Amino acid sequence: QGADSGFIKFGSRVDLFLPLNSKINVTLNQKVKGGETVIAFAK
Questions:
Q1: Alpha-carbon gap, residue 25 to 39, rounded angstroms
Q2: Cα gap 13→7, rounded to integer Å
Q3: Model-level pTM greater than 0.85?
């Protein structure tokens, strides 16, 4: 929790690396806010 898990390459896109069994909690094109939005849950 709170650890770096993505890389910002061009300032507007973040690539996240999550376990395959993660429960995704956001939708495509949804705006997220660092430290506030829960992106996924680990199973």
A1: 5
A2: 8
A3: no
Q: Does 12 participate in catalysis according to the annotation?
A: yes
Query: What pLDDT, on a 0 to 100 scale, did the predictor assign at position 15?
Result: 79
**1-43 tens-digit pLDDT:** 667 666 666 667 777 889 999 999 999 989 888 889 999 998 8
Domain boundaries, the chain: 19-43
Catalytic member of 3, 4, 12, 27: 12
The token pair at 17 is 């690396």
Tokens of 21: 């069994």
**CA 6, CA 13: separation in Å to the nearest integer?**
10
